[in-house]
Fold:
Amino acid sequence: MFWITLGGVLITTAATGVALGAALGLTGLIILHFFSNGATSLAVDAIWGVFNSFTLSAVPMFILLGEILLRSGISERAYSAFTPLFRRIPGGLLHTNIAVCTLFGAVSGSSLSTAAAVGSVAYPEMSKRGYDKDMVVGSLAGGGTLGLLIPPSLSFLIFGALTETSIGRLFAAGIIPGLMVGALFMAYIFVRCVRNPGLAPRNPASPSFLQAIAGFGRIWPLLALIVAVIGSIVGGLATPTEAAGVGVVLAVIISSIWGDLTARKLVEAVYRSALLFTTVGFLVLGATILAQSVSILGIPQEVLQTVATYGLSAYGIVFIVVLVYLVLGCFFDGLSLMIMTLPVVFPLLTGMGFDPVWIGVLITIVIEIGQVTPPVGLNLSVLSALTKNEITLGRVAVATVPYWLIHLVAIVLLTLFPVLALYLPDLLF
Amino acid sequence: MPFMIKKKIEQGLERLALAFAIAAALAMVSIVVIIVTSVLMRKFANTPIHITEEMVGLLLSVSLFLGLPMVTLKAQHVRVSIVADQLRGVLGFALQTLALVAALIFFSWLIWESIPWLEFAFNRSLKTQTSRILLYPWMAALPLSLAVTWMIFAARLFGIIDRSAPASEFDAETSLPDAEGR
Structure:
């Protein structure tokens, strides 16, 4: 009866197109009312408890940091800095897309912002130069997903705050898998462009190595900021909130001197960040009520016992969890999916003996796949919109399939070699 | 409903939402100021500010709650639009009505629960553990913003605010480039 109520109410309300946070919260309230003797008053206490959190305050700070940098014109600067570096390699600017997305991932923390910011600069330029448009949007949609894996990542911040896992360890854990996925993307582009050079026209004027390196002189303040913010967290010098707060002030100073940040743009960034945080926060609010209702009934433990009676191995459970995420990723955006499933999935996987940090990285990669899975994949929509629907959503989705598969390969590698995620956190903490 | 009254209600809700959103943005700026001051004091004066964690927590809650009316007004909530986007005409209108009713039930329920919760804190003058900050003025942001958000949903249900598009008049001032594509 519980599962019918949970699934029925959640699917029915969410399908109406109501705010997902309200659908989650309403489901939670109904469960609390009918299955927990009307204990709905717990909902408000749970909300207040979750949001009165110093750890969670890193989320709006990183959103603000990213918004300030995005408004200071760094997309163009970063793009032109990376452009000479890959000119000689088959694939050329397609590699630049991946590299700049990786850099942006270290700034914005959001998959969608990364795809939108890099795409708005790259797509017109590469179309003009005769690159295959499907390859361009594919690389941008795929590259955009790196925003969630490369620290600082909104996914890790929310995962850490909701599961009380060290955010410093999570950030450190995301570095190697993030770079690995980026490298696999580049390897795929390289192979495709070697086999079919028409996909990416070669530029006859190749710059010297020194010229290529000199381009980085234009973005060194940004690189220094990223290293300072992430380094201070990973190095244990500051909490994520402190690092992000100080990072915001440094970003304002750097962007005012070196970028195009004006007072108006700064006000816009603050205002927009407040609303963006509310958008994410309302999801967390709804999921908090649902999590409260689920945990008070001991559902995660029940699921764990049921799984134990079926005698499934730990890896069998991981396989099922990944499969469920892939299916749900067709209908929910990544962060929403993570927030609403964590109350059951996290205790289930930790109960099977998996490391919480490893689970955080695994879930982040799986929800990255959701970002490029039609029909809801938000990266696909934003890129189709960027091309003014010249490339339809379906075409972007097809172009992104190889990147989708590479993410699956990354999940297999991460499962076979957990050390990929755990090496740096174990080394640094 | 006469056009003038409808317009007045729409403008009133827009102004209220804008005022709340500005307060939410100011709360966010305050978080930055408190954190940076605290870090500087700790590193250079060796005197950490003891109210930092509790103040930041309170400001974070307030920032989230106060941003809610504007996010609702501009229809920026994350939602599953796969079914809703496919339906047009009467069916689309019916589904939209159902969505608004579901939102109204949720917000009504939460307002109902939050009033005794606030009353409890007010009657006992509850304070934070370390810095002894009085809690109810901060807690009041929850029912207040829920009530304004409820009104926006109700206005949309009854056609006072356009159902499909974000409120237009204040968009020139408040609508900003949407990097998230929402």
